[in-house]
Amino acid sequence: MQKIEDLMRAKAAAVLADGAADCVLAWKRGIFPYDHAPALFRRGDDLADLVYDVFCPANLAKYLLATSRAGERAAVFLKPCDTYGVNQLLKDHRVVRDRILAIGTPCGGMVDVKKLRGAGCGTILAVKDRGDVLTVTTAKGPVTVAKGEVLLRKCLACKGNAYQIADDEIGTPRGTPPAPADRYAEVRTLEGLSPDERFAFWRQELSKCIRCNTCRDVCPACTCEQCVFDHPGSGVDGKAYVDTSQEALFHIIRAFHVAGRCTGCGECGRVCPQGIRLDLLNHKFAKDIDAFFGPCQPGADADSPAPQSTFRFEDPEPEAVTRQDDRRDRHA
Amino acid sequence: MQKIGVFVCWCGSNIAATVDVARVVAAAREVSGVVYAADYPYMCSEQGQDLVARAVREHGLNRLVVCACSPRMHEKTFRACAERNGINPYQVEIANIREQCAWILKDKDEATAKAIVLMKAAVAKALLDEPLAPGESPVTKRALVIGGGIAGIETALDIAEAGYPVDIVEKEPSIGGKMAQLDKTFPTLDCSACILTPKMVDAAQHPNIRILSYSEVEAVRGFVGQFEVDIRRKARSVRADLCSGCGICAAKCPSRQADSEFDAGLRKRGAIYIPFAQAIPKVPVIDRTQCLKFRTGKCGVCSVVCPNHCIDYEQKDEILTERYGVIVLATGFELLDLKRFGELGWGRSKDVITSLQLERLTNAGGPTEGRLVCPSTGREPKRVVLVSCVGSRDTTDRGKTYCSKICCMYNAKHAMYIREKYPDTDVTVFYIDVRTPGKGFDEFQRRAVEEYGVHYIRGLVGKVDVHRDGTLHLTAGDLNSGRQIEMEPDLIVLAAAVTPSPDARRIAGLVTASIDNDGFYVEAHPKLRPVESPTAGIFLSGMCQGPKDIPETVAQAGAAAVKAIGLLAKDKLLANPCTARCDEQRCSGCEICVQVCPYGAITAEDKTVVTLEGVRETRPVAVVNEALCQGCGACSAACPSGAMDLKGFTNREILAEVDALCW
Question: 20 to 30 A Cα–Cα from B198, which one of A301, B241, B462, B593?
């Protein structure tokens, strides 16, 4: 990916120089070869720190909230999956279109460093992306790993290499990880459990929450001026720490709030320090919305009406939900 | 400081038999904020309200909690009582300990415990109740009637007579509805057309009535007093202003493929047609799906023969936008599609027909000029079987669970028609029960049996075989004798269940009227408000509310008119003060509320707000038009940040109620 990195640096330098953008949102090299972080570059900053490789999973879309609000025009590098988030921000009127210079950036899948370690790479000194395989320089010597084995979970549900919004593109589109046969396979497995088993699963899963709010911070659909959970007048703030049921409610309410707006980027599940499967919760909503209202991909565009906030005569009646549950219970 | 009085009603024994009201009073006295609590057998009575007034005076109450029946019943009563005694009517809370407690529970301890919890929830909300003041809104003094059958015509005439302009919107080319298709009407056997057509003429000639036929309601905005309605005037392809109704075009039209809707498919009609001789308006329409000119570009016969040059192939649908104060729904009924009743011969023999088709066959204006014949042979039938309850009182998913109400009477009527005109023809009625309550109804049915010699057999028709030569073989069970019956009737008439008009659901969505599981419109109260929809300003007339015969339909149509007139007579309406309010500081401008608002009451507007960080900035926020807001709360439920709140039902109040229920 060396070449793309160079193209990105050149592009960043150009847009900053000719005034096409006031700032550039990209990724910055970390201390270790695998901990790159989102960063804002301005004129005069050292663009040598700008980095792009298999360790740049962070979706930069959400940072547009701050730049747009500050009245700045930001150039932002977007992987195909990140473009959905930008459209969602536009649809929610949280960013101003004119203040975004969206630059499509090709992606061949991002790597989960935990999986990489599990694949025999203890101390990672350097990683070379060779397409289907990675050559990892470890303290014990070079190791070759198949990239497909170490991809992030969110990349296993890849939505393809098309940009949903892009003012400019760099490089050429790359092959994406093999699309999963069934995007909702894990949700289906959960649905197959009895209600008691499902309840037990989620209670266990959500009880791990430490209310760090990282899921909320990273989510491109979670963009309220002030979250209800922070609003002293809402009657629900400060209730999060009493017992585990309220931790669960935080996530359930959040899932309801982003339902129909969640782009399925999987960032919530990726960033959770407790490893809670928040992506599954949101995928369940997405799957149900698909089933009840017809296929829907939030973020595929910036203006189509959201299925749950618009009424159409052909919308199903509420009993469609119980019918679905009945059918499943009969099959189970 | 909040001083709450709690008033627990016995409702005679309705509540007191199941709920220990004294314990509820004792529990209320323990709740913080409550300074007075009492019980009384009938709190809504004058004495009960006096008790409230005395308590307000003596204890300085400023909020009331009434534990009684549903707020739909007496919230108004107690709000008025509060206002008379100097308390803001919106600081009254009702705890429904009758419908939601006493009536559904049997165990007294359990019911009392629940009543106490409901009381506590109401107190929790009352503590947070803010005084609200309703605004006023004007009334557009014009009524819209949707549906031009007997129900719609009657309602329109009554409203017009009271001096208010009325528009009738009818989707068919003519008003008249189902009644225009009937031959005679029970229980007097007078000719249907003779009593209906003069009313149609009255409606057409009334200076206050405008008939918008071949038109459909497409969009409804606004609310009671100020509805704004888009009406699609479908292109007739005929200029109504020039047409004399001579009918030459219809007579000469070479297309004869379409089934006549008016003759229930027993006759073909042209692509250009007038549905029936007495149609109002008597202006033909071109059915563009059938017309050769529209399908192939060749023809144009009607245009050539028309003496007044009325044919206009270029005519387009037009949208008429009009304002109304009230809307009356009179969308009528249809017969159940019998496609799943093949075992009764439906769809397999032309001689298995519906009762409505029989009406056309016996009607002098019908396809046979009133001669009853078997459609397959054109010969008069010698044995006729009438089958009741086809799809009515049917608990399987192909039928309807309700009784269609009119079939027992029209079966007796049909049997009499036939026996009267064709004394040699044998008529047998299969029935589950004969249901004939109503003035002169039972006598009517008995006449069919006793004077006309109609055979009534209590039993269900099991199956009808259609032989290769077209003859019918019917197998049925006689429930009284337990015997199996075999018959070879010439004609079988199925009394198909009545169902709401297929359009009723769409219209319910447009005006936010409620519908029941069968698709009939729901009344605001089944006994006390039978002609009103729960949505203010929407009234119900005729079959669209449930199965009923013509006398009942006309009575209900008149009642709906009176309710509509009562509203139109007012110059101003008190608006509901429980409207949504936006906390602009917390509004993110996502516009979810704009999308979910069924009344178009919310818009996003650029406003200068001070952010929570104290920064002044201009950004789009939701703005509620209080005149349009109906207080449904959809926005407040949908708002992810809790910026949208409903006055009188704030998020905090609802959570306080939930907390009171849970602890």
Answer: B241
